[in-house]
Design brief:
By secondary structure, the protein is mostly helical. It has one domain. The chain is built from three helices and no strands. The longest helix has 9 residues.
Length: 113
């Protein structure tokens, strides 16, 4: 079975976007997301995932790959060995370095007086 294409563009809430809400990562730490993006894993778009999807090795037709993660891979020049794992295109609105993603999602926002 071939894997579904990625979503067309990153969702407004996509954690890979520079404008994402800090810390909005679901059950995984920022470092885990970066490791997944730099590995061979397909990364699901949170907007298409359903409860229980993590428990199944098969992807249903409803599940799409994350366009934000795909664009992050292009930005950092990561080309997975599996040609069915989504990559690109480059996107300046998506993080371009692991430290940017990690810092954005782990640093407490500054409060103004």
């Amino acid at each position: 079975m071939s894997l579904p294409d990625s979503t067309v563009k990153p969702c407004r809430e996509c954690p890979w976007r520079r404008s994402a809400a800090p810390g909005y990562l679901g059950p995984h730490a920022a470092e885990e997301w970066v490791d997944a993006a730099h590995g061979e894993a397909r990364i699901a778009c949170h907007m298409t995932a359903r409860a229980g999807d993590d428990d199944s090795p098969e992807w249903g037709e409803h599940l799409r790959q994350c366009a934000g993660a795909a664009r992050y891979r292009a930005n950092v020049h990561k080309l997975p060995h599996n040609p069915e794992v989504a990559v690109g295109p480059k996107d300046p609105d998506v993080f371009g370095h692991p430290s940017e993603f990690i810092t954005h999602h782990t640093t407490e926002p500054r409060r103004t007086a």
